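Problem 12. The chain below contains 199 residues. Write out its predicted structure in token notation.
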Amino acid sequence: MVSLTGPAAPAQQGAVSIETLLKEARERLSDILYGEENETMESVVGRLLNERKFTLAVAESCTGGLIGHRLTQVAGSSAYLDRVAVTYSNRAKVQMLGVPQDVIDRHGAVSAETAAAMARGVRERSETDIGLSVTGIAGPGGATEMKPVGLVYVGLDGGPNEAFTREFRFHGGDRTVIKQRSSQAALDLLRRWLIQKGR
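Solution.
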């Protein structure tokens, strides 16, 4: 969080107003600055979904419904959020989302391939414009040398030629912190994609 403090208006010649500082911050931090005042990531995402008239479905594994919780904290979210599937087990990923068992067998539940299949599956089964997914290792157990605690994959599927995944590695922090960081990363990925779609 960035906090700016100063006079509301220049008290003397040469003093810089808060508005001038805010304008400069917006320009320099445009890629990471997502809101002002009391805006949250989820309220900004909701506004962008509404503006673009997009609907969203979410498939969560390691976050256990946290993304859905955050999105539904915003009044009016039913206008764009269709459903949230908590598919914690491999069985749930296969049954509820149609993730091919061989994808999980070959790449593991925590992989870019599984995240992509989850996002595609939740979008197709819900018939929404966008599918968002997250799978990872929140810890403290379940990790390996190749897949440590804090490894998270986020998938976004917006239809043909609009699907991708991102890998995140969150170091430090307990299970709660990793879940929070994962939900923030997923929502921010969606926010950035929505901004690009509006240009």
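Discussion. The longest helix spans residues 175-197. Students who got a different answer should revisit the alignment rule from Section 12.3.
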